[in-house]
Structures are given as structure tokens and as C-alpha cells.
Specification:
- About 0% of the residues are buried.
- The protein is about 90% helix and about 0% strand.
- It is an all-alpha fold.
- The mean pLDDT is about 90.
């Protein structure tokens, strides 16, 4: 960190009534907390996507079965024509 950056951080820490060390400790804790929250959200989103994918697979399977049945009926109807 440059001396200018350190001075800016020291001014910010002082304006909050914190030592520079405490300022960085709290900043680190806040960063870790946000990362944990983001990880929790990412996990929840991944689980939701997995559930949606399972539902899509079931739906696709049912659609394929319906189409197969419809094609079989169509073939039977065509075969029954004179």
C-alpha cells in the first residue's frame, strides 16, 4: 500500500473512531461475512437449479412418452386405412 493510501485509510479509520488495525480487522470480518452470505446464496441457487433440472427431465420424459403414444396411434390409424 502506498503512503497516500495508508494515510487515506488512517483518516477513514480515525473518522470512525477506530485504530487503523481495528479498521482493517473489521473490514476483513465484513468481507468474510459477505463472502459467506454469497456462498450460501450460490449454494441455494445451485440447489434450485438442480431441482428445476430434475423437473425438466421428468417433464421431458413424460412428453416423449406422450409423443410415442401419439405416433403409435397415428401409425395404427394409417395402417387401418384401405
Amino acid at each position: 500500500m502506498t503512503p497516500t493510501e495508508k494515510a487515506a485509510y488512517a483518516d477513514r479509520a480515525h473518522s470512525l473512531g477506530l485504530s487503523l488495525g481495528q479498521f482493517f480487522r473489521e473490514a476483513g470480518a465484513a468481507y468474510a461475512s459477505r463472502n459467506a452470505e454469497a456462498e450460501t446464496r450460490s449454494l441455494a441457487e445451485a440447489e434450485a437449479l438442480e431441482a428445476a433440472l430434475r423437473q425438466l427431465e421428468r417433464s421431458t420424459s413424460r412428453t416423449e412418452q406422450s409423443l410415442d403414444a401419439a405416433l403409435a396411434e397415428l401409425r395404427a390409424a394409417l395402417d387401418a386405412q384401405p
